[in-house]
């Protein structure tokens, strides 16, 4: 009895442990289900009842649940990314379209061209563009020409201008005309100034003394300026007419378009031809003045009375001088006069020779037309002529030279006061 009772007691205790274990597992499962929202309490018994869910959580929800940001922040980030992406697509589309359109235009314009490079058709040179701008829209000028072969006079009539370029802020100009020949730049004529007009009527005539032989070498220049009382006058345009290109057998009257003014040409003083010869053993320097041509006009009647001076300069001081005879009323004198100077070989390297052409005047002071100098300080043709003379002793060498402004030559030599020096002893 006692043994059976003990066995019954042990069995009861085992069942109790099993029940407690089952209840513990059930309560643990219910707690986990409650956390996950899978369990609800029964309205009748209050005990938890498991409810099966039909929707499983997606990958996106799981990924978003791991980001430590609120939903409104995630939405704002998504919208910003979308806007940036759209803008990026728009930029790509514009760039692609902008590159393709010019290619189509180039194909259309270049297809008809074959056999040579078409680069010049796509974009002209900048110099051509500038020249085109300068030469358009300046207006035109009407003028007349009449040459009298008997008295060798050229009459230039400045008639009128039309459609001039407006130089003032009010849309008008104050034009006047300057007329001159390139063979005598200093002799210029001016018309009257006409106020506030782009179509002035001048009707003025000017007379130039031009020998028939020099007509083909001259160019007539007519420049139209805009007058300004308080500032520099602006040039509107000019007409350049080489007289060799027109027939002066009859009166000419015509219109010409104004073009951009060219650079101011240097005044032509003329040319002179002479020969040099030096003999080192005797120390004799021979200068032969042959002729001159195209000399500058110095007299009112368009001619000059030229003569030539030959100076020897030693140590920047005038030393010896010779002078030719005067040739009356000519711009192309022929001299053929010889001068001999004694210059020891020991001094020839220190000597400069100045050749100057003068216009003789009985009443007033003689005026210089032009000068040039030769020697070891010289440059260009003058230095070459002097060097050839020294390297070819006893041989006369002739050469043409262009005259230069007198002040330029004097400044280059740095001439001092007049002083005659005796010949150094041999």
Rg on CA atoms, Å: 53 Å
Strand order of the largest sheet: 7-4-3-10
| Uncertain regions spanning at least 5 consecutive residues | 36-55, 99-135, 417-426
Bin the helical content: 25-40%
Helical run tally: 7
How would you spell out the order of helices and strands?
HEEHHHHEEEEEEEEEEEEEEEHEH
Between the first and last Cα atoms, what is the distance in angstroms? 177 Å
* Estimated share of beta-strand residues: 25-35%
Determine the mean pLDDT: 77
| Number of distinct beta strands | 18
Q: How would the global form be characterised?
A: elongated
Helix-and-strand structural type: alpha+beta
Oligomer: single chain
The main pleated sheet reads as: 4 strands, antiparallel
Description:
This protein is α+β, with helices and mostly antiparallel strands and 426 residues long. The chain is 27% helix and 32% strand. The protein contains seven helices and 18 strands. Strand 5 and strand 6 form a beta hairpin. The longest helix is centred in the first third of the chain and has 40 residues. The N and C termini lie far apart (177 Å). The C terminus is likely disordered.
Name some characteristics of this structure.
alpha+beta, four-stranded antiparallel sheet, 18 strands
Quick summary of this structure?
27% of the residues lie in helices and 32% in strands.
Show the helix and strand layout.
Blueprint lengths: L1 H35 L2 E3 L6 E3 L8 H7 L5 H40 L8 H4 L3 H9 L5 E9 L4 E10 L12 E7 L2 E7 L10 E9 L9 E8 L7 E9 L9 E6 L13 E9 L4 E10 L12 E9 L2 E7 L10 E9 L8 E9 L7 E8 L5 H12 L5 E6 L3 H8 L13
Antiparallel strand pairs: 1-2, 3-4, 3-10, 4-7, 5-6, 5-8, 8-9, 11-12, 11-18, 12-15, 13-14, 13-16, 16-17
